């Protein structure tokens, strides 16, 4: 069933588990995410970035919204990193039930003002809103405290931001970053900061850049001819700890892309004569589904739907 993001996330924060928001760009990813959720009896958020909406167009948004309605578990269709009011309106018109407005690169007052405008429009049509405060950046352990402070989410500001904007859930910057290179060794995560934010902000909190970039997946990608540098992700224990402290929505894109592409490479390497797309997209879709399921287990959302 198609539900709002808040409906899913409120319960998650209250009960102390996390819900995955998985980025999709095509039919195969969408099927993988929805099938994983149904098999795991897990609520889920299907996330489409502006890039996904551009790439997949009406075909993808139609499929996402209609399949979410038919799903046997709660599904929110979410706009990831909406960059403007116009972009959010497009998502609302397409039937999304959750939107993110990301003005985190603007100054505090502008972020508040722009977010507030989106909240008014989205709430008018029953859609809930994610906003972001702070800069997502991979941070090395040795970086000076004041430097970290300038980038990461300030707890008191977070409280004021949520009160002034009326946003429903908040993306926080606590050390994670997007993509496959999140910092040396075990990337730095500021759990004490998260704890202080959670004490002041009762709304569900969101963790972007949360992919694990599993070494075995990176190795598989490499072994199949893929080229990738010193890729690192967020340690599963760091995710668990963040969920225990108040993170309710966890975004994952990179892990799914890696799995999908590794399997396509492997399959085509093994069968150079193959040119039926179903023969390599099928196994790749299956690999995405397995990653989604293992993320759901880590987040504790299995059996919650
Ligand atoms: O945070 C960004 C997501 O991974 C989506 O990326 O803009 O390349 O679709 P994208
Ligand atoms: P990853 O790059 O770690 O998968 O993060 C995705 C994300 O935050 C999408 O908004
Ligand atoms: Na998002
Ligand atoms: Zn993100």
Automatic annotation (TrEMBL):
SUPFAM superfamilies: Aldolase
Active site residues per record: 80
Cofactor(s) required, per the database record: Zn(2+)
Gene Ontology BP term (one): fructose 1,6-bisphosphate metabolic process
Coiled-coil ranges (or none): none
A single GO molecular function term of this UniProt record: zinc ion binding
Protein name as it appears in the record: Fructose-1,6-bisphosphate aldolase, class II
């Amino acid at each position: 069933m198609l539900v709002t993001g808040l409906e899913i996330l409120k319960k998650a924060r209250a009960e102390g588990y996390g819900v995955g928001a998985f980025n999709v760009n095509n039919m195969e990813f969408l099927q993988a995410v929805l099938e994983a959720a149904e098999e795991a009896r897990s609520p889920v958020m299907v996330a489409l970035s502006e890039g996904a909406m551009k790439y997949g167009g009406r075909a993808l948004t139609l499929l996402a919204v209609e399949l979410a309605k038919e799903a046997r578990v709660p599904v929110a269709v979410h706009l990831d990193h909406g960059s403007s009011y116009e972009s959010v309106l497009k998502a609302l018109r397409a039937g999304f039930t959750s939107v993110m407005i990301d003005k985190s690169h603007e100054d505090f007052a502008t972020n508040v003002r722009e977010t507030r405008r989106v909240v008014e429009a989205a709430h008018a049509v029953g859609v809930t809103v994610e906003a972001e405060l702070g800069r997502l950046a991979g941070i090395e352990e040795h970086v000076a405290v004041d430097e970290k402070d300038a980038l990461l989410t300030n707890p008191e500001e977070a409280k004021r931001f949520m009160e002034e904007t009326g946003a429903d859930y908040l993306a926080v910057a606590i050390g994670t970053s997007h993509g496959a290179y999140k910092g040396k060794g075990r990337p730095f995560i500021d759990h004490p900061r998260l704890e202080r934010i959670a004490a002041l902000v009762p709304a569900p909190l969101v963790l972007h850049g949360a992919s694990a970039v599993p070494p075995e997946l990176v190795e598989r990608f490499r072994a199949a001819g893929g080229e990738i540098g010193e890729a690192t992700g967020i340690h599963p224990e760091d995710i668990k700890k963040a969920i225990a402290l108040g993170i309710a929505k966890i975004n994952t894109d990179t892990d799914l892309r890696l799995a999908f592409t590794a399997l396509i490479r492997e399959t085509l390497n093994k069968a150079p004569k193959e040119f039926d797309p179903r023969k390599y997209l099928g196994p790749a879709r299956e690999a995405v589904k397995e990653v989604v399921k293992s993320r759901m287990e880590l987040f504790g959302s299995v059996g919650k739907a």
